[in-house]
Write a structure and sequence with these properties.
The protein is mostly helical. It has one domain (about 1-75). The protein has five helices and no strands. α4 packs antiparallel against α5. The chain starts with a helix and ends with a helix.
Length: about 80
Amino acid sequence: MEITEAHFDACLTFMREPQALWTSLRSSNLIERFIRELRRRLRPAGAMMAEAEVWKLVWAVSTEQEKRWAAYSGPT
């Protein structure tokens, strides 16, 4: 509680964004979903041969996540 009170303004920075985004910004659910999706895809891949392969996978998951976020937030 002390940390929240000391940094109250920082806790409300999501309110600077359009109100349609508030629900998704004040929650870590989207970030947690992104991490779960990365883990789900990395498990069957096993050992990666190159760092570039990991970055390709992160890019693919990020692109899909961006589409979901855009659909969730509605038209801009």
